[in-house]
Amino acid sequence: MNNGTINAITGGASADLTLPAPSTAGSLGANHGFIIDTIVPAAPISAPNLQDYSDTGHTHLDNITTFTTLTFDVECGQIGETVTLFVNGVSNATKVCEAAGTDSIFTTSLTDGDYDITYTLSDTANNQSEPSPELSVMINNTPAATPI
């Protein structure tokens, strides 16, 4: 193709790629190829896990804490994927996976309340997975009532 537009429709969305003629400004030059990556990473199968030291409730399994910045373990599919942590459906933090397997990510500071935590994985082409299962977490810094 000397120049032109490629239009692909994937999942109801279209993407146009317009290539200038070879040897003109912005062209790929001779014999250069490219890949259009539309493969979405698999959705995480496990919910994020509140790390034990962040869980200050009665047990390290109750997901109740007094901390306002929380640390979660997440599962990375491969090095270079980006983890996006969501708090009540809103993006809160991102991190690039340093290894395949378990990695950790920190929230920004949160206030007292109940939160549903999920995460997604995005590849280097910014294809984003569906969200992980939810983990419900409670932050409670209200002192216990003094008995009368």
Plain-language structure description:
The protein is mainly beta. The chain has 2 domains: 1-36, no CATH class; 49-139, Immunoglobulins (Immunoglobulin-like, Sandwich). It is 0% helix and 39% strand. It contains no helices and 10 strands. The strands form 3 sheets. The protein has a 5-stranded mixed beta sheet with strand order 4-10-9-6-7, with no helix packed on it. The model has no long low-confidence stretch (mean pLDDT 86).
Radius of gyration, CA atoms, in whole angstroms: 22 Å
Shape: elongated
Task: Name the strands of the widest sheet in spatial order.
Answer: 4-10-9-6-7
Average pLDDT level:
86
Give the structure's gist in a few sentences:
The chain is mainly beta and 148 residues long.
What's the arrangement of secondary structure elements?
Layout: E1 4-10, E2 13-19, E3 49-50, E4 64-65, E5 71-76, E6 82-87, E7 90-96, E8 101-106, E9 113-122, E10 135-139
Parallel strand pairs: 4-10
Antiparallel strand pairs: 1-2, 3-5, 5-8, 6-7, 6-9, 9-10
What structural keywords apply?
single chain, 148 residues, mainly beta, Immunoglobulin-like, 2 domains, five-stranded mixed sheet, three-stranded antiparallel sheet, 39% strand, elongated
